Predict the structure of Winged helix-turn-helix transcriptional regulator.
Amino acid sequence: MAVSPDTAQSLIKELFFMGRAIRAALSHPEEGDLLPGGIGVLGSLEARGPCRQVDLAADLCISQSTLSRHVAELVSSGNIARHADPDDGRATLIQITADGSALLRCVRVSRARALQAALANWSEVEAEQAATVVQKLRNSLAAVAHHTAVGERRPVSTESQESDV
């Protein structure tokens, strides 16, 4: 193994704290009205286009019941719409609405500005290096998650990996 157990544990701890810091520093006021992860659902749905909930849940690597709570909330707020699947009248497709797209754009701009402010003392090169390392880590984790899911016959898609949230 190239990485020691202590280093792996330290990295896990830092990633946990990074997640908390990201939520605290980059949150947008309108996100407070949504369940945590709601903006991620919108971003993935925007990237994927109209789809069935089961497919979006697989993309996001979350349970269908968790996604159902998000979808119910986002439909109620007008950010997602449901309509019949033209290929299967028994099924329903979900898609992002104009209001959902507008909210997503607003949140993305707000988050980018907040991150720019947080990185005010960083050079462009340092920020690019950080992005490269974080992307490498994400890809390594996604590959392991995909391998594990295939072995357990759980659906995992990497489509949501490219959504800009």
